[in-house]
């Protein structure tokens, strides 16, 4: 907790470590309230560091010291100093290696921040990224200190029969007093943020994987007994990921054992600890009746993500935390590729871009904007952001686009070979890609350093006589905190041309011709000329969303409808529909603001009718074409966000489409409605998506027929996708059985925490009247718990981040509620508390009355006592 104004850490101040720790021998005598930690550190001076200093400073927080010795000699009180953040030993040997031995005690049960060693339900587990290891014992807690770990775990055998840590099991045995021990050794040197241990009553679901070189790997998933029947999908996902990484990147697993443990209490999604991943249960457990199709996909994605970290993150790690995107951006890109290959590349790309544009673009346009490689932080945990992860992945994707698949693979091969076992920088990554391909990415590097979303403004001129199209693209980037002026970036812009009949036109530039090109935009303004075009083509720009930018290009509704029908690029086809809907919704908002009656343009109805009647192999893609832009995406397009007008206009469009195309929606519902529970192939998933999209539209009609349809589906569903979609249709309408349905759903799933999270989130995000009262009542519900991050996200997170109409209620009650909760969470779990503050960060985007109310709550937070660094940083930067 905060004493004075917390200190800022700067990238420019990086210096190599003065000491290295080659090996650590760690012994834990585990107990929920009193765990004893003994550690022997084999240290030596870092030969690369020539400072004169003879002291040794080890990081440690909230630890009770029992003893400390150097080379076996216990230190006197005068030989060292303990501060709230460190142990400083005044003099250590300089000319030879030495051993520091420490004994300390910690209390896992009191650790509600869930960093370091903590209790989750009845099991003990760790979370050490980014700086949790210092809450276990004193250490050089920085990623460029890579150490070989030997760990012995001792615990009561009844309470903690399973004892796990990184690497391979080296021995085990019983002790006289009812305790037992297990020894572990990890042959790979690693930074301490990758350390993990788990102790508890856990069941093991086991399988195996034979690697491409024929090695047999044991795969083990550990869960509580009642979850054993929900591990099959995670296990299959793991095997898929292992095979995929071999086939796509030539990367093989390196230990003989790969373990995953699922825990109920976890601040993030999962953690890539070497050989012992620890996962939020949300990203492991799935059974057809408890998890939706999207849950199944997310599980495969996150299992893949953590597995891929074994190379991009563990074998090659980060030099310092400013390089976080080196491992995260790259690994997100890899998991996106994997998920696309496993499901539908088109759908996956659209979902990723949609999330990026809705959420990361908002971050990049607000007070918390920072580069993919940040330059300063107060609390590193605040930098596990959408920018570092998702924009970071886009930056890697652009490198992939510029080099092509083969060139990119060559670059990655060199990167892993050159830097195996090292802690490196984003610069090292780019350099390897350059060297392997003999290219130069000078200007491209600015993507790592410059914050903000670039804007491309496009104008075109067709010269009929010369049969040429002139396309002029200007790039600019709005100022962001500490970066008032921006430099031009190297932006790859994929382009295709369509003839008037919708067929593909050849793209000819000087002597080259192709069906599609990637333009290299490097200047502030550039004109590209396309030749040999007898009629004016329709331009399809930024195909596949080839760069994370905003595009400003005037298009008529007719042109967008044309692209929605004909663009061969699946991303741009969807994008045309989104732009069409956006233009129409914004037009309706103007009508609303001027008191005019609303009327939906026939272009929109025709466009949707043609999607509904079209024939699609990929029904998930068809469902996406029918999805209106989210309210938060629309909000991101407005200078001053008008939450009520957005909601009303969008609801009007949805209801009118449902009314006018009712027959089509009903027919498609009937066509795709069948029970395929337990089947997760693309066909079954797509049919469920289409059917439930139709149900969602039909529920807007508020008629008996639709109510009956929803009730029927709710009562007969044998899979969570259908049950949840039906419950959503009921809860988000004036359905007469709403209360009963919610009640029966709760009773059915009371014992399944992850399903109950859905129950909370659904109610918290409803735009219907009285939601705030419901949220307040749910805060008092016996199943609500402030110490369980998933529950907090389901209720407080959903209300403040997915319910614009009620969170932004004009009287400010939503803001005050959020600030109240942030202050409670601040004492319990600073990481979760600071995540919740982001609901207020965008305050400058609203009308003056709301601005004042939001600002007031941020000021109240900043002024409160005992503020954690986490919350202080987000709240104070939001106000700056
Ligand atoms: N490295 C993990 C995510 C993670 C990050 C931080 C954490 O605590 C502050 C925990 C987990 C990943 O990318 O999956
Ligand atoms: Zn990651």
Summarize the structure in words.
This protein is an alpha+beta fold. The protein has 5 domains: 1-201, Immunoglobulin-like; 206-310, Zincin-like, CATH 3.30.2010.30; 320-449, Neutral Protease Domain 2 (Neutral Protease, domain 2, Orthogonal Bundle), CATH 1.10.390.10; 455-536, Sandwich (Immunoglobulin-like), CATH 2.60.40.1840; 750-880, Alpha Horseshoe (Zincin-like fold), CATH 1.25.50.10. 41% of the residues lie in helices and 21% in strands. The chain has 26 helices and 34 strands. Strands 6-5-9-3-2-12-15-14 form an 8-stranded mixed β-sheet, with no helix packed on it. The protein has a 5-stranded mixed β-sheet with strand order 17-18-19-21-20, covered by helices on one side. α1 (232-249) links the parallel β18 (216-223) and β19 (257-263). α8 (557-566) runs antiparallel to α9, α23 (813-828) packs parallel to α25 and α25 (848-863) packs antiparallel against α26 (869-879). The longest helix is centred in the middle third of the chain and has 34 residues, at 386-419. The radius of gyration is 28 Å and the shape is globular.
Main sheet record: 8 strands, mixed
What's the end-to-end separation, in Å?
Answer: 22 Å
Low-confidence stretches: none
Counted beta strands: 34
CATH topology of the largest domain: Immunoglobulin-like
**Domain count:** 5
Defining traits:
880 residues; alpha+beta; Immunoglobulin-like; Zincin-like; Neutral Protease, domain 2; 21% strand; globular; binds zinc ion
